[in-house]
Amino acid sequence: MRRFLITLCCMFATVIPWELFLRPQFTRSVSAQPAATADKNNEELARLYEEDQSGRMPKDGKAIDWAVVAPRDKKRLNRVREVYEESKLITGADYYHVAMVLQHSNKASDHLLAHELCVVAIGKGEERAKWLAAASEDRFLMNIDRPQRFATQYRSTGLDGPMLLYKVEDGVTDELRRAFKCPTLKEAKDREAQFNEKPKADK
Questions:
Q1: Is residue 15 helix, strand or coil?
Q2: Distance of CA 203 to CAs 24, 62, 132, Å?
Q3: Cα separation values, 3 from 66, 67, 143, Å
Q4: How far is CA 62 from CA 84, 101, 151, 164, 203, in A?
Q5: Domain ranges (residues) in the chain
Q6: Cα 188–chain centre separation
Q7: What is the sign of the dihedral through the CA atoms of 44, 49, 50 and 51?
Q8: What is d(CA 147, CA 32) in angstroms, rounded to the nearest whole number?
Q9: Sign of CA dihedral 189, 195, 201, 203
Q10: What does the DSSP 8-state code read for residue 180?
């Protein structure tokens, strides 16, 4: 059976996407550009980004309904690729929003492109793209069966299997991880256990 990613984790009896737990505080603002810029963020990309995130943050602790989310993901992926190919990305937020949607693809080529877009976004002052630059590189490497570098990715072999930190190669220090706003290697390993904790039964 082909291995696949499970993006659910249980923390405090709430089911959330692992990446929202790992990356820095998620902000709903789409205007993270330096004050000096007069460029306006692409409103369509901002909306697609918000929809992408909302689908991964179900209310009331409910599990993500992938039968609903997956088809919507596919449509968003097709649209952001079109916008990118039409050269309509201007601000750092534009590049970041497209990269985040591409990150949720199952294609290694999309993960690599997401990483490259994050590099541009960072150069344009988009701080949120730092974590995503590391995560998209890790996801690309995992997709091609190579060890990851920043320890952002977890994998399960099935719906009922434990969530395990995907193999990590040497070469990236915790200092570099912090520069990309990622947890240390120890923190990443500790979270593996947290992901697999079962909710305590009510007395």
A1: strand
A2: 34, 22, 41
A3: 17, 19, 10
A4: 33, 22, 27, 22, 22
A5: 8-25+39-57+65-195
A6: 15
A7: positive
A8: 32
A9: positive
A10: T
State mean pLDDT over 4-27. Answer: 39
132 has a pLDDT exceeding 90: yes
The residue among 25, 8, 19 whose CA lies nearest residue 61 is: 8
Torsion, Cα 68 188 158 60, to 10 degrees, reads -40
Q: What is the pLDDT of residue 30?
A: 42
Cα–Cα dist 135/96, whole Å: 13
Look up residue 114 and give its amino acid: A
Tokens of 71: 């088809």
User: Which residue's entry shows tokens 């602790």?
Assistant: 61
| pLDDT tens digit sequence for 51-103 | 999 988 877 777 888 889 999 999 999 999 999 999 999 999 999 999 999 99
**Total-model pTM:** 0.78
The set of residues, in sequence order, having a beta carbon less than 8 Å from that of 60 and lying 6+ positions away, is none
Element (H, E) at 155: strand 154-155
CB atoms within 10 A of CB 74: 12
- E-only strand ranges, 1-152: 8-11, 14-17
Q: What angle do CA 152, 72, 88 make, to 5 degrees?
A: 80
